[in-house]
Amino acid sequence: MAGILVVFGTRPEAIKLIPVVRALQRRRMAVTVCTTGQHREILDSVLHGAGLAPDIDLAIMRDDQSPIDLMARLLPRLTKVMEEERPCRVLVHGDTTTALVAAICAYHLEIPVGHVEAGLRSGDNRQPWPEEFNRKSISAIADLHFAPTAHAAKVLEAEGIPSASIHVTGNTSVDALHAIRSDPRYSGLSLGVRATLASTLGKRFILVTCHRRENHGRGLAQIATAIRAIASRGDVALGICLHPNPNAHAPLRTMLRGCEHVNLLPAPTYPDFIKLLSTAHLVLTDSGGVQEEAPALGVPVLVLRNTTERPEGIESGAARLVGSQAETIIAETYRLLDDPLAHARMKRSPFPYGDGRAGERIASILASQREADVSLLTARR
Ligand SMILES: CC(=O)N[C@@H]1[C@@H](OP(=O)(O)OP(=O)(O)OC[C@H]2O[C@@H](n3ccc(=O)[nH]c3=O)[C@H](O)[C@@H]2O)O[C@H](CO)[C@@H](O)[C@@H]1O
């Protein structure tokens, strides 16, 4: 039966699309889940944790794959999937190479595309690279745009996207957060998390994640220098989440191994990560999703980037851009550690990313669109 083909390939896409897949399944809508496997172990960890076995797994990942290499290998594979599955619609998320290629293949096969987390822009085609280009290109292809906030919707309208095709839904990361925190398995601390938290007793805990391409090399060296300085205070403990990409974890391992009050955490699972985040006094991160999750948990965010596509968090006061220079990271972290009022202000900021029902809203809109999609498919035969 002509269904919706949901395509993702990375950990964050899986985390944010699973709430939509579950909402579609609750509506008994035909859904085919295709993962490209752009990520591997951290993606599998999310799928296993959610009890979701993809219908199709392209297992495309290669070590040190470049975006252009990935595109070249994905284009024929995803075209073949769509020719065989003949979906009435393709659904993608965000800004990854997987999302872009799936949208391009659908466009050439005249299959309509829905875009979850639409309208995020940094305003700089080079930052982040290639995500800014990817998400702008998907916006040019999609005919359903699920914007997480009113700001993202305005960005799309300013780019000439018809208002009738834009739906403000909230970010599905909030749905995922609510789901994991109400999951009975969430209450059990894994050994890794237990050990980390035990080592932080009596100290304030700072969580750190950094994986973005623009921070590879010099950026990570500066971040590691800042971490060593912060750890030397002696009144804080740090948990450093190590992304599986060697370009993202090798410099941190080298520079931080054996550093007192620093726990190196090899890619914590999503439930463990959320548990660590919820106990943190503050988080230092270049992640996109963590800029949404931390404020949802009342944890101040210092963003290790020079730009962000999440200005809502900056404007609300929940997050602050600090870049990747060691002295700035140190100064801003010390301010939050030594000024309780500054910390309290960030902690109490209003939350701009939705109410945890984005997946339901998206599924409802897709259901109302289904008849038109199917008749388009029939006309295409
Ligand atoms: C330019 C940009 O910002 N693009 C982003 C990028 O995603 P990202 O930057 O959010 O990527 P990560 O930080 O890797 O993933 C984060 C998720 O992983 C969980 N997590 C984290 C560390 C860990 O040790 N264990 C975990 O489980 C964490 O809770 C969270 O849910 O692409 C997405 C897809 O299009 C976009 O949506 C998103 O804009």
How would you sum up this structure, described in words?
There is one protein chain. The protein has helices at 11-26, 41-50, 67-85, 97-108, 131-141, 150-158, 172-181, 191-199, 218-231, 246-256, 270-279, 290-296, 311-316, 326-338, 340-347, 358-380; strands at 4-8, 31-35, 56-57, 89-93, 113-116, 144-147, 166-168, 204-209, 236-242, 262-266, 282-285, 301-303, 319-321. It is an alpha/beta fold and 381 residues long. It folds into 2 domains: 4-170 and 357-380, Rossmann fold, CATH 3.40.50.2000; 191-347, Rossmann fold, CATH 3.40.50.2000. It has a 7-stranded parallel β-sheet, with helices on both faces. A 6-stranded parallel β-sheet has the order 10-9-8-11-12-13, sandwiched between helices. The two termini are 14 Å apart. The mean pLDDT is 95. The chain binds the ligand CC(=O)N[C@@H]1[C@@H](OP(=O)(O)OP(=O)(O)OC[C@H]2O[C@@H](n3ccc(=O)[nH]c3=O)[C@H](O)[C@@H]2O)O[C@H](CO)[C@@H](O)[C@@H]1O. The site of the ligand CC(=O)N[C@@H]1[C@@H](OP(=O)(O)OP(=O)(O)OC[C@H]2O[C@@H](n3ccc(=O)[nH]c3=O)[C@H](O)[C@@H]2O)O[C@H](CO)[C@@H](O)[C@@H]1O has 28 residues, from helix 1, helix 11 and helix 12. Residues 23-366 form the UDP-N-acetylglucosamine 2-epimerase domain. Keywords: Isomerase.
